[in-house]
Amino acid sequence: MNVITVDIAIVGAGGAGLRAAIAAAEADPSLTIALVSKVLPMRSHTVAAEGGSAGVIQAHDTLDNHFNDTVTGGDWLCEQDVVEFFVSRCTPEMIQLEHWGCPWNRKPDGHINVRAFGGMKIERTWFAADRSGFHILHTLFQTSTKYPSIKRFDEYFCVDLLVDGGRAQGATVISPSTGEFTAITARAVILATGGAGRVFRQNTNGGIVTGDGMALAYRHGVPLRDMEFMQYHPTCMPGTGLLFTEACRGEGGHLLNKDGYRYLQDYGLGPVTPEPRNKTMELGPRDRLSQAFWHESRKGRTFATPGGDAVYLDLRHLGRAKLKERLPLICEMAEEFMDIDPAVAQIPVRPAVHYTMGGIPTDIHTATPLAGLFAAGECSSVGIHGANRLGSNSLAELFVFGHVAGDEAVKFAKGAPAVEAGKLLDQAKASAAKVLTLRDQKGGGERHAVLRKEMAVTMEKGCGIYRLGPEMQETCDKLAELKRRYRDITLEDHSSVWNTDWFSVIELGYQLDVAEAMALSALMRRESRGAHQRLDGFETRDDVNFLTHSLAHYREGAAPEISYGHVKITKSQPAQRAYGALGEALEAKKDAAHA
Amino acid sequence: MPEAAIAEKTVELRILRYRPASDAEPSFGSFEVPCTDDMSVLQALQTIKDTLDGTLSFRWSCRMAVCGSCGMMINGKPRLACNSFLRHLPPGPVTIEPLNNFPIERDLVVTVGDFVKKIESIYPYIIPKEPKTVADGPYLQTPAQLAAYESFSDCINCMLCYAACPQFGENPNFIGPGAMALLQRYNGDSRDGGQQKRLDTIHGEDGVWSCTAVGICSEVCPKHVDPANAVNQNKTNSAFDFFLRFLRPGGAR
Fold first, then answer.
1. Do A110 and B62 make contact, defined as CB atoms within 8 angstroms?
2. What is the pLDDT of residues A47-79, one digit of tens each?
3. Domain spanning A233-353: which CATH class is it, in words?
4. Helix axes A15-27, A132-144, angle to 10 degrees
5. How many CB pairs under 8 A join A and B?
6. For residues B222 and B68, what is the distance between their CA atoms, to the nearest angstrom?
7. Quick one: what percent of chain A has pLDDT higher than 90?
8. A435-546: which CATH topology?
């Protein structure tokens, strides 16, 4: 067991982890920072974000607009004080990224260009073609190399947190290339490990998105908040679930059913207009568009593909030049993966799981309920997404709250007593022994891949776009069964160098815990709100009983316990959530009342 | 999905295996993998790992050719496994090997640390020509100024160009095409003033002059970054800079 002592340990080096590391390094260059990532930082899943990042910049847009789009989009399950802070910090963070070199798209005069996105009143999505996440991640990674206090642990896999005296004080990690363990002790710890979309079958996520940080915090007594809210992105590749960005629609793409009809007009999203109209039709929010697909499929107006029912994403009218400039990655994916040229043919698409709205609860300062532990990015639930995330807010979240986490960890680390290395080392050794036992497990002959597949299938069935009580119960039961079988699985690989069999099993353990929190939180929420829609007598939003955050508490060897927490409402009282013509009428009424 | 239909068709994958604890040297293993027409090489490898042999090791993540993890030699050419489709490969066995020119750690996993150090060595960040604070707002950059470096910023660090480069194969210290493209990405950026500092890193024998203009790096690039063009531009810049040194106060260093 190696031991390394630093001031701040950051687990995860995607957008949030890198931003936190840079913030901490700038706040106090004398502090030592360990930046741990199970992959090279530029492989982190931020890389796959396409459309762009929100920040008010146009003269006719306001922070209030961004606030309202976010809170309404989240079906009022947002922490409104946090949203207010967030929208005020987005644009400065976008500018900071610009200064660091992010190749944002420009207007002819050299000013920043923005594009339309779903559920957005005024265009405010900063973008770098359709590789926004890729450019942001590489910009951040490359920029991070100029800070000598950031010591990277590339390709180190985190197996546990070090927690002593009610305070997070580091992490136990393995180097895959040697199989050696290292105890990293720290005065403050930041989790920035991303979401958990891989617990579902068809998803847009990379293989690494396995809820590691969520499960680690959860097992140490930190509840997971609002885990029932999983975002289905409406336009994904059938079968693989790969993402066709919302920017396809932001740039003017249409969704058509098998008859060539723009079906969204049948689901309260009309009127149909020749030019894109904000918050209308294809520029509606993700939850509503995915739900419309579900109904369309039930009506028999979708078409079958080997990867499931699909509708058409039509980009042909945008023309080849615009497609190449604004959506080059989309064109590449359609051409390479599907042999389709989007300039001449329509792309079959269907919804797939995209984003984990819930996560590790934090306050506005990114502090979790566990002292010394901070969280930022998709693994966290700081309270800006509510029941349905607004497109473009997740990238912005990484920088706004990654920055806060870095600053806050510095403050905490400076005030925290030194760690007691001896006690922590004992803990690290115990964690190592546990995962080594798992590595050597002979078991009853069942492969972990079988369990992973069954988990993904049951999650899709029970926690899909629409949900039913008995099906969610079945999913909960199935997950409990899978956890029992997990204890007796067989590892084929017992070696120490690049034993990816072993890491997959540890990840599966994380996934099963997180999946259980999702399924039970879903079953217990007896209403429909945002991405959580039921068809078994709870079809409407119930603000009397469920304008509340769910909190899933881990219990070893048993189902989680669910409790509920307060939602902070400041200036936007829950109201009817509408888009298209009705949304415009309601907004006009509200404006008239204010005038 | 009809399971019987899937089982009808198979493809043979010949994979170079190496397990350091038990193997003296790498050797080929063969797998008969059930397949469909829409399958990528990555999906075939995942099928092996999930159903035939859990000990096979390889890196992968995004599945959509942007994270840069799954570079490997496929039928002798450096490619990403995720966007190489079985239907596009010639019939017959598919040969899979780890990326050329890198030390093998295990199976298809190669050592990447030296490559990352090369990227770090060229000052891969904006060294502002005119420093600004966030309160000052964004720099202006016209679409033409963006276009001057944009394609070089598309590099996904997949290292395929290093696996293809004969010079890197002979001299592992050669800075290589990917890092040179990144250097050009920053040197070509209108906001940047660090050109001289970066040029100084590539004058030496392991720098830009090691390149013999084979150009295969650009051919294998999955993102059309054209590192060969970056290398060429830097040869010109390096030569120009070499002569300028004698004219600068202090002369040649």
1. no
2. 999 999 999 999 999 999 999 999 999 999 999
3. alpha beta
4. 30
5. 165
6. 10
7. 97
8. Methane Monooxygenase Hydroxylase; Chain G, domain 1 (1.20.58)
